């Protein structure tokens, strides 16, 4: 590092002097010459970025990935730094790089939000667990031992231990322990029942169907619940298939209009209820299939 006698030293002893390079960078137009100078500045400050990455070692991410994230933060700092503002590049780059690393942990490592106090407990418990594990022979420290080492209550230690699990989550595809058939957690999760989507429609239609004449109710039942063709219905009732088709269409239209009018009265919005495949749905009775 280049310093004068009595001048304030950089927090990083080997911080390069790139003030002139940044001034030239700001004056250069886009092109190969500017790109080469930008790359040279990034390489000059890369050791500092790697040291900042080392501060986050042991938190569930490899040091190689941390260095790449720090390098990305350094590139952002170089691109956004304005030498005309008068502040040293280092004072701008350090929070930019550390912020990039912390954002990575927040967005990609933690699987749930943890309050700041619990984060502090988690860190103290984690460091104590690591320190004690080096001195204990073949076992993990107990809650009481961690509490004594950290001067925390055992309850706070338990909170910290639980918070340590927020960095990892069990995959729904992971095989459950003790499962002889290779079942995963996802095999035991329920799924939405498609029939729930028709509950409101069914409840709205039921009293309208009950008010229809007996023959029309019978025709709708045979068609939509008995899955009978119009020809079979006509044969059973002794009428023509065309007459069955007209009756089905007329009944469906009548029930649908009654339900729609009730919806308009209740909410005033005139928004039709979802159409289904039953008597009040958007499907008209088709000719015999």
- End-to-end Cα distance, whole Å, is 88 Å
Tally of contiguous helical segments = 11
Unreliable segments of 5+ consecutive residues: 1-10, 269-278, 280-289
Q: Order of SSEs, N→C?
A: HHHHHHHHHHH
Helix content: 55-70%
Q: What percent of residues are in strands?
A: under 5%
Count every beta strand, where a strand is a DSSP E run of 2 or more residues. 0
- Describe the biggest sheet? none
Shape: elongated
Summed up, the domain count is: 3
CATH class of the largest domain: Mainly Alpha
What is the fold named in CATH at topology level of the largest domain?
Rna Polymerase Sigma Factor, Chain: A
Please state the second-level CATH architecture of the largest domain.
Orthogonal Bundle
CATH superfamily of the largest domain: RNA polymerase sigma factor, region 2, helix turn helix motif
Query: What's the average pLDDT?
Result: 79
- Rg calculated over all Cα atoms: 36 Å
Tell me the structural class: mainly alpha
Keywords: DNA-binding, Sigma factor, Transcription, Transcription regulation
Pfam families: Sigma70_r2 (PF04542), Sigma70_r3 (PF04539), Sigma70_r4 (PF04545)
Domain RNA polymerase sigma-70 region: 41-108, 120-189, 209-256
Biased composition (Low complexity): 268-277
């Amino acid at each position: 590092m280049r310093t004068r006698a009595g001048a304030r030293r950089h927090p990083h002893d080997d911080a390069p002097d790139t003030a002139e390079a940044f001034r030239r960078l700001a004056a250069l137009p886009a092109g190969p010459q500017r790109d080469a100078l930008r790359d040279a500045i990034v390489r000059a400050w890369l050791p500092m970025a790697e040291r900042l990455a080392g501060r986050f070692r042991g938190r569930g991410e490899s040091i190689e990935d941390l260095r790449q994230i720090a390098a990305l933060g350094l590139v952002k700092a170089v691109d956004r730094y304005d030498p005309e503002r008068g502040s040293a590049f280092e004072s701008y780059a350090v929070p930019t790089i550390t912020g990039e690393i912390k954002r990575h942990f927040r967005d990609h490592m933690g699987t749930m939000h943890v309050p700041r106090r619990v984060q502090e407990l988690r860190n103290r418990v984690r460091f104590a667990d690591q320190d004690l594990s080096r001195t204990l022979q073949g076992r993990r420290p107990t809650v009481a031992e961690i509490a004594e080492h950290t001067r925390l209550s055992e309850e706070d230690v338990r909170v910290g231990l639980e918070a340590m699990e927020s960095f990892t989550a069990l995959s729904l595809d992971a095989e459950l322990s003790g499962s002889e058939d290779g079942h995963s957690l996802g095999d035991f999760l329920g799924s939405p029942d498609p029939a729930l989507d028709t509950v409101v429609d069914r409840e709205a239609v039921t009293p309208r169907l009950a008010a229809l004449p007996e023959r029309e109710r019978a025709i709708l039942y045979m068609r939509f619940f008995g899955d009978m063709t119009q020809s079979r219905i006509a044969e059973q009732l002794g009428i023509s298939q065309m007459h069955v088709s007209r009756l089905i269409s007329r009944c469906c239209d009548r029930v649908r209009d009654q339900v729609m009018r009730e919806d308009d009265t209740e909410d005033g919005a005139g928004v039709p209820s979802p159409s289904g495949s039953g008597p009040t749905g958007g499907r008209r009775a088709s000719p015999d299939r």
